Records
---
Amino acid sequence: MSPYPHHEEPAKEAAISLIGIGNAGVNITDRLAMRAALPIRTIALNSDQQSLTASVASKKLVLGPMTTHGLGAGGDPERAIDAAKESLGELQEAVSGSDVVILCAGLGGGTGSAVTPLLAKMAKEKGALVVAVVTSPFQFEGRRRSQQAVESLAELQRHVDALIHFENDRMAELVEPRADVSETFAACDGLLFQAIGGIVRMLGNPGPLPIAVNDLLSVLRAGAGGCLFGCGESEGGNRAHESLEQALRSPLLDRGRLLQEAGKILVHLSGPASLTFAEVAAVMREISKNTSASAHLCLGVSSAGDDSAPLIVTIIGRTGVEERKSAPAPSVAMPSISTPPPAAPAPPVEDKMVADPEVASPTTKTQKVKQDFLPLEPIARGRFERSEPTIVEGEDLDVPTFLRLKIKK
Amino acid sequence: MAKEKIHVGLEIGTTKVCAVVAECGRDGEIRLLGVGESPSRGVRKGEMVDFQNASKCVHDALADAEERSDQEIKSVWLAITGSHLQSFNNRSSSSLAEESEITEKEIGDVEYKAKEISIPKENVILHSIIQRYYVDGQEGVIDPLGMLGTKLEADYHIIHGVMTRIQNTIRCVKEFDIDVDDVVVNSVASAQVVLSDSQKQAGAVVIDIGGGVTDYIVYHDGVVRHSGAIAIGGDHITNDLCIGLRIPITRAEKLKIEEGSAMVGGHPPGEKITLRNDTGFSGKEVDRELLNMIINARVNELFKILKKRIHEVVPEHLLGSGILLTGGCSMLRGVREVAEMIFDSPVTLVHAHSVSGPTSAFENPQLSTCIGLVKYAQAVNADMPEETIMSKFKKLLNFNLGL
Ligand SMILES: Nc1ncnc2c1ncn2[C@@H]1O[C@H](COP(=O)(O)OP(=O)(O)OP(=O)(O)O)[C@@H](O)[C@H]1O
Ligand SMILES: Nc1nc2c(ncn2[C@@H]2O[C@H](COP(=O)(O)OP(=O)(O)O)[C@@H](O)[C@H]2O)c(=O)[nH]1
Ligand SMILES: [Mg+2]
Ligand SMILES: [Mg+2]
């Protein structure tokens, strides 16, 4: 079979921001910032200074330093609101300049519960497409937390274009009954990580077969029913089969069984240019075996880049969705958003650092001066040839002291 | 749960990556459970230059520490150093509404104001260390909590550094799904275990000479007065020998440790050291005087720079307890004597004390920073006994799952 035709007109690149709010949100944002080579801006927003210190997000904003003294909101949304009021400028800054804003938080605490809806509203006002990915607390965290989460969720629904809501209880139940605490957390975080990665890929889908933003939103639109989600990744000869297997094994699909209950399902395949029609067809055939006959399947395919890119299958659906006819289209103009192909991800920050260890080197001038009277210059820095020179009062101290003394005499 | 808390200190040093696992009691006692080490690769002058290699060494050191201590490492206190670190002292003041009692809030406000000072855009503040408070101009207030006044002032020692460089180090740890409890500047950590309270009071300088960086910190009146890092260390000596004696770098390192001294003289003139041949090296006779002269030039210069930097901020007569040297390079012969001549004050070689465990193995100046980290962690925890939300929450979870 022939491969999919590729789009010709170059699409405008959409700027996507991921904002992690509160401890849980910052945690998950960190994971994405570190692991997923996604072309997104990451922002960590918290009233807890310690969580920010240790974050690797590209931008960190502390909320209400005068209100909370960097100690967090203590699980109290009122306090978090006060902190937010103090830092309205920072919040505006966080939601500005993006076509898509993805908000991520664990609801039930102070900061995440209070600030996420606020940010959603602000981002909406700036004309961005707003997606929220949130969790609700474990039941045993107590009524107060559940209540806070419920209120926050209701408020959030009024402002977002799409909402993905996972229940911690359910995720934990589904992970591994015997997993220990940190494994459970890690597993929950892992699912959220995959979900956000999947959404970014769908939104930034460069084709050849993009998922319509409206389709994505109608599945994700806030409403009743649980969120279904699965994601798998594989390379090599049997990649189509393997990645689908993995996606179906996701706990949030209950080994694929839950797909039967879904009214509308999005399937997205992202892979190298060598992705064939036969592979796409095989995946879709397999998925339709797991869904009800009346289910509406939406397919998106993006293939680009070199053959080393893995095939990633993402499945998103919602149970108990009664198709709300033509949910209002997002007010933003999003004709076709596109991101660089997955095979050519933005280089991780550390590479940049390594490649350019002399960024802050103030030395070009001094080195020249030195060269004038130091004949041994080419070998004299030895082991430090590639590191940032140690300059004190204009002298390059990587050059052996005894040599410099000899020259001076 | 027991009162003991496990803390892990991690230093990604120029020479070695080192992780210390310790059990900290509420009474201040620290029991070392194990130390994991791995020789460093990809680290120069205290900072990562090759992420892949450094990351592998971090992994090895952590795995080693887990095995030796029989503890699973979930989070670490991380040491930070490098030439990008900068510090200054800053006074801030805040007026109280009317004559009212000073609460945590006012103290928090005055600290926040001290940090409002402008630092370069790409920098972040790593520490703001309280030096002293003034209430209505009155000096010598140690704890203003509960005092009455109209004006609260405070002096802080602020340490800041370049954010991306610090993040680089953090990233290297987080790669392995290990949390960073907090980042601590090397000199601040080292001082925790080599200085006694009375030395801090009388005034003292701690100088940690490592492989790529020399970290220093100055105490007086019990508080930090000055701190800094300069990217010169044992590597420089080794490199000088490699260039000056024309021998391979590994031989230079060995020669430095086995034969080298920072003091010249004290041996018969013309004395030679024979380096035996080795693969790729045909052997050589080295003049002992030349060897020591090269080392002396470097060490001399280092202490002169340090002296100048320290005395710019803290006058000499305030350093009653003198100079304390630690870090691997403090083991170099003659270093103490050279320091004594330059500073013209008493100089002592020190390593971590007041810890228990299979101690003798830990009485090593190379471990000062790392052991200092756990002491620092313990001090922070003792200051803030209330549990964080997360820890409370995790405990709850523990309880409910019956784990
Ligand atoms: N017995 C010894 N005599 C002389 N020098 C020594 C001795 N033992 C270790 N060193 C030197 O000490 C240095 C390593 O010290 P240390 O382990 O404190 O450094 P590090 O913490 O890895 O580096 P840094 O803190 O600078 O990043 C090396 O340069 C090594 O040559
Ligand atoms: N999956 C996951 N959930 C978390 C994590 N930390 C906290 N939560 C959940 O998020 C809720 C809010 O906690 P937190 O983010 O600490 O509060 P905030 O910082 O005040 O917003 C908690 O009630 C937990 O249910 C985490 O690391 N992973
Ligand atoms: Mg060190
Ligand atoms: Mg050092």
---
Amino acid sequence: MAILVYTEHWDGQFKKSTFELVSYASKLAEAANTQTVALSIGEVEEDNLRQLADYGADKIISVNQQNLKYVDNQAYSSVIQQVADQEEADILVLAHNNTGKALAPRLSVRLQAALGSEVNQLPASLDPFMVNKKVFSGKAFANVKLKTDRKILTLAQNSFGIYENTQEPVIEKFEPTLSDDQLQTQVAEVEKHRDKLLLTDAELVVSGGRGMKTPENWDKLKALADELGAALACSRPVSDEGWRPHEEHTGQTGKIIAPDLYIAAGISGAIQHIAGVSAAKYIVAINTDQDAPIFDVADYGIVGDAMKVLPELTEAFRKARS
Amino acid sequence: MKILVCISNVPDTTTKVRFVDDNTRLDTNGIQWVINPWDELALTRALQLKEDKNNAVESVTVVHVGGKGSEPTIRKALAIGADDAIRVNAEPQDAWFVASQLAEVVQQNEFDIIFAGIESSDYNGAAVGGMLSELLGVPSISAVSSMDLENDQVKIIRDIDGGKEQMTSQLPLVVIAQKGIAIEPRIANMRGIMMARKKPLNVVEPVEKDTLVEFVDYELPQAKPPCKMIDPENVQELVDLLQNEAKVI
Ligand SMILES: Cc1cc2nc3c(=O)[nH]c(=O)nc-3n(C[C@H](O)[C@H](O)[C@H](O)COP(=O)(O)OP(=O)(O)OC[C@H]3O[C@@H](n4cnc5c(N)ncnc54)[C@H](O)[C@@H]3O)c2cc1C
């Protein structure tokens, strides 16, 4: 018995989201009275691997093969399955990000394990195995029973928190068996947004909607974001118009985020937009229309012209910091 | 080359959801049903690929697992431009059940490219496309934000955390689509709606399958306390609240 957590890395580095995931897995292991095994695929130095033990990993398994440089969904799910079998893992935990969403359903079929996707807390009970998840894009939550012996969970990002729980880990290498026909996709080119704070990782987010009127007005949002160390986001029409890149679009059909603070300027608060930001801990709305639906979901609101309020707010933050 | 697009039938995104029978079932009264937004974008892209004469795309088929009640949504997909449709006559129960039915359809008819949306806006499982590819034993690429064909080869862009990857793949392939694969979904015109009535909609019976999960009951999110309004002439107050009350700065 064990909980196996798949820990993704970025050029050999883990992120806070990885530590949150390991924290979740080890709390789950504690509840299930078993151990936490972390799996890393690709080139990660031992010092970095060791970090996983700070959040509760008892055992760390590293797979490093040249042909696993890029995520091939078939090959990666095969490797994870091999490790799950070796460790007799009965619960697998992955992040509910692009990679986790790609691998978890494949593993569900491979292991005949029920998938609880985008869970946001520990299971309410282990027998029966009950998890809570968002449904209807955040308009409701469901209690879901996972009926199989083995289970797979994907954890919604920024939903659980990071808990230190230092272990003296066992670190092992694992050599998977992979045949060539398990590597059927090829990555020809990679483009990385270097040095840019990732929207899904950001604790503070500054976002603009159609009420910002022109792409030039984004310099006001950017000034505030720079002052706060926040990431930028936008509503869908803004990215559809090409004012901002589509990676910044939040909402039901865009990114789903859970920052500590979401500042929405010139955004009406359409239900499809809220679907992407309702998990934010605090929402600030700046809008000229006092009846805009964004004020129904916001914690703090300012009825006013964003072009005027944003620079004043930036200035006020600057003063407060110095 | 033959393309299949998997279609889920979901409540319109503006629906206010309610539950009945002790919160164990969605109240479907008054719900407008639509094609799942990501599936609609995938279908739009599939049709664009077929219309481009440089590509040898023979046909675009849509497939849906659902009861007769979802036929208007399937007809809508035909009106947008799909050539034909398959409905597996069973209420969708969980992602595994649906993926198993879809796998059966793919095995009976050959397809080179199979599109699925990255998730369905009702139960948000983000599971069917991946499960289907595993059941078929074929590759999958997920979070696809762009897809082209060149000499019968796929050219795909997948979004990763913090970047993009340009990819190719052997076929058959399951393409799991997100926003960007098409910008705006295509809307049916009058001619399309007329033609859709005559297009084949084949109904097949399901294979017997279990479910792996059970949706036991539902709850609505807790109401938020009312928004605190701040005088636009005094933004300093907002800074104080964020620092001292919310403690997020
Ligand atoms: C299937 C589907 C999926 C969708 N998915 C998404 C999604 O993922 N994300 C998303 O965002 N949308 C989505 N939408 C679109 C959504 O319905 C709204 O149309 C969109 O969110 C509105 O964007 P907005 O708030 O920027 O613009 P608007 O609705 O035009 O609102 C602009 C706001 O700016 C205010 N304003 C104007 N001038 C100023 C000023 N000077 N200062 C301050 N405020 C000002 C106005 O009062 C208004 O409230 C989806 C729609 C559908 C049908």
---
Amino acid sequence: MGYFVNSINPSGKIAVDDTILIKGTPATAGSKMLENFTPLFSAEAVERLEKAGYEIAGKTNVGEFGLDLLGETSFFGANEEDGVLAGAAASLVKKGEVKAALSVDLNGAPRRAAALAGVDFIKPTYGTVSRYGVIACACSGEQIGVTAPDAETAKEILSVIAGHDSKDGTSLPAEKYDYALTDVKGMKVALIKELYDLASDAVKTGIDKYAASLKALGVTVEDVSLDIVKEAQTAWQILMSAETTNNLSRFDGVKYGHRAAEYKNIDELYVKSRTEGFGFLTKATIIYGSDVLSKSKYDACYDKSMRIRRVVTEKVKAVLASYDAILAPACSQAEYKAYDVLDSFEKVFEESVFTAIPSITGLPAMATKGVQLIADSYKDNVLLSIAKSVEGLEA
Amino acid sequence: MKYELVIGLETHVELSTASKLFCSCGGHSSPKEPNDCVCPACCGMPGMLPVTNKHAIELAVKAGFMLNCKINQYTTFDKKSYYYPDLPASYQTTQWFNPICVDGSVEIGDRTIGIKQIHLEEDAGKLVHDDATNTSLVDYNRTSVPLIEIVSRPDFRSADEVITYLKKLKSSLQFAGISECEEGAMRCDVNISVRPEGSEEFGVRAEIKNMSSLSEIKDAIEFEKVRHVDALERHTEVLVQETRRWDDVKRRTFPMRNKETAADYRYFPDPNLMPIVIDDAWLEEIRASMPATAEEQSLRYTEMGIPEKEAMVLASDRKLSDTFDEVVALGRAPKSVASWILTECMGNMKRLEIDELNIDAAKLARIIELVDTNEITRPAGKKVLSAVFESDVDVDKYCEENGLNVKVDESLILTTVQRIVAENPDAVANYKSGKTKAMQALFGLIMRELKGTGDPVVIRTLLEQELNK
Ligand SMILES: [Zn+2]
């Protein structure tokens, strides 16, 4: 399986994940359910790019609905070499086949993929890039971001796709966002101890190296304790699964998408179409999401997770009141081996501890040089500035 | 033992907005074909995001004002999940946690009915069964059409109270321009239980779903009352809390399949719709745009000199009051207009079995003008009006063609008067002996002779002259 599910323009320089709609081109979201689904309109971010003169190369392979680690659950096959998994968009960018790629960061997949490939991915502040035209799962936290070889390119593409969109009710009001890069000298960065301790030695070495680079640039790096990383992980798992369950309920075999060949009545049409159309991880997520939303568990699960979201946001913002950015691993290991699909639900949950904080808080985050940076709302430029400065050290 | 009914209503009403609740599709009130007024959003396609229709919010607030509710200035939308082919996204956006209006009341006669809440929600589509292919087809024209659900407290004690409330609700909603309340567009779920009179506890409740005809609602309540009392008194069955439906052919309710009612709807706040904050300025703007209520309208009519009872009848029906206002605006005297609408128009409506007054106000105004200026007689006026009701005739042309104009030759009137006087010496004698009623009898004879075409004033004058000779 190639990185592209559908090519559009061989000379195009931007790849777009298959969870983002482009009018007239099939959008599968990596699922058999949408194998033959062709959207009637394009995502706002795609329209902005096209209007600015960028050509779209094609649609990149993603894990089913973007729920997995690195795209390994795609109905069209995982991207792996010698049993090592890789993200399609990050691989295309790394190989220089495209200038940049648009990906939906739902549960950290593009951040993780970029960190492993050694390229950049920025998940901007929630609400700064329109989600209009994203095959939605977890609306309260998912966000279109940019995979790019370097911070300068990420900034260029982000500047094009960001901005208010009246078609998205959660879009933030500002017409333009300020991505002006600043001098990082004198900045303070907090290294989150709890996440650092969870990572493998190889990842720790990467973080140490990055911290050393920061120090060389005149940035202070300090160990900081943030005691809510597990809570953020579990709460995001609950919110994300619940919203995904709800959003994927529209794929019922009635209107479009996969429909079972034979059925005796409407209930059988639903059950067979969805059983055949969805893969294991999607089904597991739906079952989990249905459970946490059920009447008897709503208060203890969903409602509590929304309250945890507020606490996590307060605590992280308290850190960001004293520090310009947070430094943390983006994933537990330096490479991922192919694994049994039946383990995917637990595996994704385990890994999400590193990516959940930006997802649940909506704060901007960036994968760069194998590490993750997190900043306060609207401070996407701080992330880009730090990433660019460190990238400059080696140039 | 005596029993009393305890009834609560959930009433769904379609709002009069130009577009749907979360997309810009319009024309849904008069679609030409199935799936005529749809877009990717109201078809539940992926990638679309909802954008709230501000006008729907305003109309819901207006309904809140009308029913004396407290308006929640912070209100949210929630998702209610269930699978049914008429629900394209497999969830309905509604207001579960923070409804827009709460704690209101409405007076019916000397009783006060509490309003628990009013919330906004989107309608579902429609399934059409095709017998030829034995398949079901789905029409999404109605999906996402804005509705409000008005939830009453269990304060009704009879079917009549329920009917009075629904009629009042309908006229008030129409008046305020909140809803057209077209036939069948007001749908009710009736929650009903029975308890010994004087008891404070509630009995076992049945919910009769999706009723729209007032007479069926009444019949269903009466049926349920008998069923519940029989169960309590004679142990004909064990009452269980359940959802039932009315079968209009069998004239009774039946329990619905358990599956349809035992669902867990998995409500949760819609993350795509930010909470709506109605600030004081917006609230006041909406309040200021409230039209007169039926009560205020009625008061306005009495101030115009219309007797209270007639004013109330006019104000209770939007079509009647609109017609009244238009005809008065065309320069006709309010009292005269009220009488023509309430007596003559309603007479015709009853005769022709028409539910709603739908007359061209200009035509009615012209008829009243002709009568009031004595160009035609009142009986002639009634005749034209009937013709307008039956075949929408042109008033002036009809009068002309049927010789209704009073411009009858005075000499013809005079010869007729003289002939009648000559033919009825007894009446003349009676008149002369002081029985003035005799003149009325003669007048009637002359009118009949002239087939209502003579000017009554002229006839009366000539008759008096002749009698007093
Ligand atoms: Zn629509």
---
Amino acid sequence: MTQKTELQGAPSAMSAAEETWYSGTWIDRIPQPVSITVLGALMLGVWWLIYEIEFVSQVLLPGPVETFEELWDATTNILTGGHVAEGLWITTQEVIWGFLTAGILGFVLGVVVGETRLGRKAVMPYLVAFNALPKVAFAPVFVAWFGFGVNSKIVMAAFIAFFPVIVDTAAGLAAVDADTLMLFQSMESNRWQTLRKLKLPSALPFIFAGLKTAAVFSVVGAVVGEYLGGGHGLGELIRFSAQTLRIDRVFALIVYLGVIGIVLFGIVAWTERKLLYWHKSDLLEVEGKFTAGA
Amino acid sequence: MTESAEAVDRAGHESRPVNDEVVRITDLSKTFHKRGLKALDDVNVTLRHGTFTSVIGPSGCGKSTLLKIMAGLIPATSGEILLNGKPVTGPRQDIGIMFQQPTLLPWRTSLDNVLLPIEIRSGSAAAKAHSEDALKLLELVGLSGFDQVRPYELSGGMAQRVAICRMLVTGPAILLLDEPFGALDELTREYMNVELQRICRERDATSFMVTHAIPEAVFLADQVFVMSARPGRIATVVDVDLPRPRTLDMMTTPEFGALVRRVRGTLDMGIDGGGLV
Ligand SMILES: Nc1ncnc2c1ncn2[C@@H]1O[C@H](COP(=O)(O)OP(=O)(O)O)[C@@H](O)[C@H]1O
Ligand SMILES: [Mg+2]
């Protein structure tokens, strides 16, 4: 009986602990919806002010109104299946194929690297070193190898997104708790059982951290590929708009690039929450711990 | 608390003739060659059926190493360990082990954690077939109704009780415990000591527990092995002939105090006696 109360008592004790004597200044007490709205309005206001006083040329920096008009145009274009819709679809495909390739390849090779002594001792240092390289610099190479079509963009996206997945997967497998490993040894668990029942599940938070980084990086990869390698994706539309000094259109198209990234990230994060129901508080700690920039 | 105290009183086994040997360790030594470190030297131990042995000693004297060798997890450099007459050459089903951390799998329910050793050794079907046994074990440790709960909802003491069930589920001949309650607060720890005594008596278990708390060592044990360091060896054996079942009240008696002083007196704490209560 005492245990029952112990169990139920825990959450209420937690929330009680949040009530402290210190309640912050009035700024800290503003409700989040209000503070977010006010801050957003403030940023738009500053933007509009800079535009109005022509701090920089209005050609180079469009105002918020012009940008929203352009965003509206882009949206109608997408909804009516115009060339923006085509670009969005092409880039989305590049991102998805790049992400899937990176995710599957990174996971499988990450398991191989993390599970073998040679992988941990010899391959891992190279991976970490490679991970620190500015990988976008390889874009012209991929364009030279795979041409101006979607393939070079997919390869570029996959290449950038691959590293966080393989590094985090291998690191996650290596981070397994030593005592629990000993427990499995004492149960005469074979290698496959230990991998399946202990190492992979406990590496999942790491793997998902890698996949979330990969979701963002694959958009970067696809766009860089398009900037340098042409094609008909959003990146090419942005490049062309910028060259003709239609910065408002550039901004509008970047919003749609962001949508691709956010949706993909959201899908991965949602899957993680479904799968890692047992993994509560440490979720944020692990995130992005082992991933360097693209 | 009252429930378990009653259970202890009720248990009151007749003191059985204890001659049957479960573990015999002869001339056991262990050297870690990489560091040229002699961790254990000439250890000789006999454990009889149904007895509880506590092992205490300064940090780094080889307690965990001894336990791991007994569990078949690491090889000895020389010497022999017999468990029920058969030499220990690797992990075995009749050896139960538990650590300072509960090492439960957080994605599994209590029940599935308890069944893990059976699932690993004999597959999921066999594990399923032992569900009843596992539920009875959870009841034994006072966790009935918690079988579908996951580890993050358990307190430290509750998690260790699940770990006890997991250790017991294969019906091991020897229980090896490495500072099992070292991470718990003092009150929970005392409570767990009473619980462990009750569980061991009910299961008629043979236990070998490493600890760094002298009162805990004395409270649970029939004999306390006091180890010394560099090289690790068993320096003294203190027999504890306090009547059973023991209660927390007994810890304030002069007899108990005298035993604690005796153990403390034989402990060579080296330069740093760190961590010894
Ligand atoms: N795998 C190992 N390799 C080398 N030295 C070890 C290893 N395991 C333990 N030791 C050393 O052996 C000695 C005894 O360790 P241990 O048995 O863990 O001590 P205790 O549990 O009594 O604190 C320590 O000096 C420790 O550093
Ligand atoms: Mg130890």
